[in-house]
Specification:
With 217 residues, the chain is of the alpha/beta class. It is built from six helices and nine strands.
């Protein structure tokens, strides 16, 4: 790995996240996470304009130029918010010429859900689901992968990207999706700094919002 690539994978990291009723920004300037800057705001009637307005208030031009990596959640969550934050993240990534990572909202909450339910068995898998109003569920599948060097470090691998399913098999372990603005935003920053796959500065081209159903469902 070149010195240039190592530098690009380092801090500061910018996280852009949304849930069903809020959008969030996070800025991690170093590995001292107690200095993270976090911002959460509930949706209002003019999400498009307010997203840009609040982002410009959240981070200065000087700090934005220092960002070495951006990470964005792609859903499933609020359809319009997912679409808008992905457009924002892609635009910034292209403009400041830095890599863009993306993670599903279910993958981001998976570690928190596994910890809350005491799932620490290596290779054990579970589903995270969200019930749809008209038909079926959106569900993704996740597997526990303990860190070989540190058994206390819970690593989650997404084995099935969230998709529409007719039912959740009762014999399989499953949990309802549970969004948590600040905790998921911090996990998004953690995942970004652990991930080295999207190290290419053109990675923004591959990042698209994830929403398995039409926005009118």
């Amino acid at each position: 790995m070149t010195l240039y690539l190592k530098r690009r994978l380092n801090y500061p990291t910018l996280g852009i996240h949304s849930t069903e009723n809020s959008f969030c920004f996070g800025y991690r300037k170093s590995n001292k996470i107690e200095f993270d800057e976090l911002f959460v705001k509930q949706f209002d009637n003019d999400l498009c304009n307010n997203l840009i307005f609040e982002f410009n208030k959240f981070i200065s031009k000087e700090n934005l130029k220092k960002v070495n990596k951006i990470s964005v959640s792609i859903g499933p969550a609020n359809f319009n918010a997912s679409r808008l934050i992905v457009v924002l993240a892609r635009t910034i990534s292209q403009q400041i010429n830095c890599p863009l990572d993306s993670f599903s909202s279910f993958e981001i909450m998976a570690k928190r859900i596994a910890s809350k339910n005491n799932i620490f068995t290596n290779k054990k898998s579970f589903w995270i689901y969200k019930k749809l109003k008209r038909r079926g569920f959106i569900a993704g599948k996740y597997e526990i992968c303990l860190n070989e060097k540190d058994s206390s470090d819970l690593v989650i691998r997404e084995t099935v990207l969230p998709k529409v399913v007719n039912k959740i098999e009762s014999k399989e372990l499953s949990f309802e999706a549970n969004y948590d603005d600040k905790e998921d935003l911090k996990e998004l920053l953690d995942l970004s700094n652990k991930n080295s796959l999207n190290s290419n500065v053109d990675s923004w081209r591959k990042v698209l919002p994830l929403y398995p159903i039409s926005p009118i469902n």
